[in-house]
Automatic annotation (TrEMBL), chain A:
GO function term, MF aspect, one: pyruvate dehydrogenase (acetyl-transferring) activity
Matches recorded under Gene3D superfamilies: 3.40.50.970
Domain of life: Eukaryota
Gene Ontology BP annotations: pyruvate decarboxylation to acetyl-CoA
Chain ranges of the Dehydrogenase E1 component domain: 5-185
Keywords assigned by UniProt, alphabetized: Oxidoreductase, Thiamine pyrophosphate
InterPro entries noted in UniProt: DH_E1, PDH_E1_Alpha_Subunit, THDP-binding
Organism name: Hevea brasiliensis (Para rubber tree)
Name of protein: Dehydrogenase E1 component domain-containing protein
Cofactor: thiamine diphosphate
Pfam family for this entry, one: E1_dh
TrEMBL record, chain B:
Highest taxon above the source species: Eukaryota
Matches recorded under CDD domains: TPP_PYR_E1-PDHc-beta_like
Keyword Transferase part of the UniProt annotation: no
Gene3D superfamilies: 3.40.50.920, 3.40.50.970
Keywords, ordered alphabetically: Oxidoreductase
Protein name: 3-methyl-2-oxobutanoate dehydrogenase (2-methylpropanoyl-transferring)
Known catalytic reactions: N(6)-[(R)-lipoyl]-L-lysyl-[protein] + 3-methyl-2-oxobutanoate + H(+) = N(6)-[(R)-S(8)-2-methylpropanoyldihydrolipoyl]-L-lysyl-[protein] + CO2
Lineage: Eukaryota, Viridiplantae, Streptophyta, Embryophyta, Tracheophyta
Residue ranges of every copy of the Transketolase-like pyrimidine-binding domain listed in the record: 46-221
EC number(s) per entry: 1.2.4.4
Cofactor(s) required, per the database record: thiamine diphosphate
Amino acid sequence: MGKRTGCSKGKGGSMHMFNTAKNFFGGHGIVGAQVPIGTGIAFAEQYKKSKGVVFTCLGDGAMNQGQVYESFNMASLWKLPVVYVVENNEYAMGTSVPRSSSVVELCKRGEGCGVPGRQVDGMDVFAVVGAADDAAKLCRNGNGPILLEMKTYRFRGHSMSDPAKYRTRQEVDEVRETVNEAVEFAQNSPEPDVDELYTDVYK
Amino acid sequence: MASCLRRYGRRLSVSICEKRELSTACEGKVIQQQQQQQQQQTAKLLNLCSAINQALHLALETDPRSYVFGEDVSFGGVFRCTTGLTERFGKNRVFNTPLCEQGIVGFGIGLAAMGNRAIAEIQFADYIYPAFDQIVNEAAKFRYRSGNQYDCGGLTIRAPYGAVGHGGHYHSQSPEAFFCHVPGIKVVIPRSPQQAKGLLLSCIRDPNPVVFFEPKWLYRLAVEEVPEHDYMLPLSEAEVIREGSDITLVGWGAQLSIMEQACTDAEKDGISCELIDLKTLIPWDKETVETSVRKTGRLLISHEAPVTGGFGAEISASIVERCFLRLEAPVARVCGLDTPFPLVFEPFYMPTKNKILDAIKSTVNY
């Protein structure tokens, strides 16, 4: 929210959330830019022999960016421990998947570059956890990158009180309360100091 | 021929028709339209995105071999600049592309290489960088490296640029300086609806690839009388939009309205400011700026992009070369700070009216 107590000291925008303690390298505003970056992080992990795995998340829109395929090729060539998680909610801004992608089964799009893929029901939390677990295991054992396509969909309404079949009223209220608490904390936090304007441009 | 178009103040522009090397379909239709409309040159109050929309309609109407494409342009685009085009000209000429800027521009170069007018939209100028290689290494060099056997002159790339109050890192950038360093392309930035329509039509019909940056802040905010007929404004001609005698200010796009406010304030302190809209950044009109600086002896340049390496540096260096002994003070640059475009710090980052006013005073009092 652009406050000092926020992640990135309030200097990033709404998509720029980071957490070094959890090795979360942040959200990205430029579609597809995170894919080669995640691939590079995976190389670093492999080099260290850390048995670490990198989860690089991207949307269906990013699947038409060239740098994604450059990344797939490098990851496959060097057997990098990276799981590419494609959240396919059918729309990138106003661009729908079937109208913009000649191969709509996104899990197959890595095959041409040697990245096997699997489609997962992205609305089923157990399926997602299971698939992530399996993929991480395979990666850790040096099998190379994997693509997981999470099939999900974008809700039409923004309001939390959307009548949704899969949520009870009570659950909605509980989540709303948690969100409200977080918002109140953020709104009461001070903004970053003006001195921060010039920090972290260079080291 | 083009010199007769220099204008001062806000009068209706005179229509011109420049010779084009691409398809000649447009030339005939434009002349026809001019003759029909010469009797009644009506104008309408339009905002910037509507003026651009009109230009696109005219471009496609006058040349059947012109195309508009980009992300989400079919439904009208995220800023509504392409409204009504698909309905009127069909899906074969106005269509959506996937999310792939490098591909969009490369594809546009190919289309233009076949003598078509390819009007590519990049959704935000902040996203133009994947296409940088295509623009610099392909579009800008096509004619040169083929010894004029091939060219992609019909290519026009449109992109919304500039601060919008809440855009943050990736919806506010002014990347014009990167492209001003590339001989072979032109870079054009309009300041208002009436300017945008005429300049965009000139860019589309110019036989060179052009990058056209549209100030998104003004899409809805700027409203003025825009002539309804087909008209073009000359490229590489700067315009003195306010006459003065103590200091010359040079800018482009949305920044000009901020500079104008500073000029008005400075006048209250007895400082007479001359304000120039550069319009075309490359190739830029050095003569107009030099003539003005020879009159005033002082120069101030202002742009939203960060000061270091911004286009103001080129203007400053060139004018110092030409007017060194005439200058009464160092050339002032009031620009964005040398930081990534910030979100919460935007008010500090921007070259505001007061920063410009301070610089005017210190330059005049040097």
